[in-house]
Amino acid sequence: MSITEHHPAPTAHAAPTPAELGIGARLSLHPMTDGFVPVILGALRAAARPEVEVVTDDVSTFVRGAEHHVVAYLLDAISAAAASGAHVVAHVHLSRGCPGEVACTVDDAILRRPVTLGPLPRSHHAASAHWALYPLDDGDADRRGDHMAGIFAAIEHARSLGVVTGSEHFVTRLDGDLADVLGAVAQGWLLVGQRVRHVVSHATISLGSPSASAAGAR
């Protein structure tokens, strides 16, 4: 009797997962209303999608997935909260790369690959944001770290999108439709990720503020 062994054909290595690339976000929603609980929970339910992992605790909501899925979740959640009619403040924290959440075992060519964020659907919610970007650029044996180069490039990109309205202490001010503001934040984050292994970005976004209404739109 003969035995024939069957060996499966070699397969290409699977692409690293968002967890292996350290991609994710944290979101905190603060609706200025006595009925804040249903606004927050309703917004998180409205944004739910199978492509992202979502974990909520008593401080914030963690979101993990591919970059475009994470940003889409944030847009839907903040939009849903704003639809309540309350003044809403959202704190958005984005992170990708290493060292940090994950060990730096991913090749630079993969970690720094260009990632394109497609146009986000307009939310029809006017938003104002204070935005800060943190390229954690330590440099290497042949190059000194230069975190400001990435920050300036991201701000100029946001300026080209027409949402930069000023510079404040430690932050850049953005104004526009929520989709445009969040898109500028995310695109700057991804742009710097092409040159720096670990990039963190933070934005405080305000929607429906009575102060803004009284002062008039910028």
Short description:
The chain is built from seven helices and ten strands.
Q: How would you write the strand order of the largest sheet?
A: 2-3-1-4-10-5-9-8
The major pleated sheet works out as: 8 strands, antiparallel
Spatial separation of the terminal alpha carbons: 85 Å
Which architecture would the CATH scheme give at its second level? 2-Layer Sandwich
Integer tally of domains: 1
Beta-strand fraction estimate? 25-35%
CATH class: Alpha Beta
**Low-pLDDT runs:** 1-12
* Separate helix tally: 7
Q: Can you tell me the overall shape?
A: globular
Class from helix and strand fractions: alpha+beta
Number of strands: 10
Describe this structure in words.
With 218 residues, the chain is α+β, with helices and mostly antiparallel strands. It has one domain: 2-Layer Sandwich (Alpha-Beta Plaits). It is 33% helix and 28% strand. It is built from 7 helices and 10 strands. Strands 2-3-1-4-10-5-9-8 form an 8-stranded antiparallel beta sheet. Strands 6-7 form a two-stranded antiparallel sheet. A hairpin with a 4-residue loop joins strand 2 and strand 3. The longest helix is centred in the middle third of the chain and has 16 residues. The chain is globular. The N terminus is likely disordered.
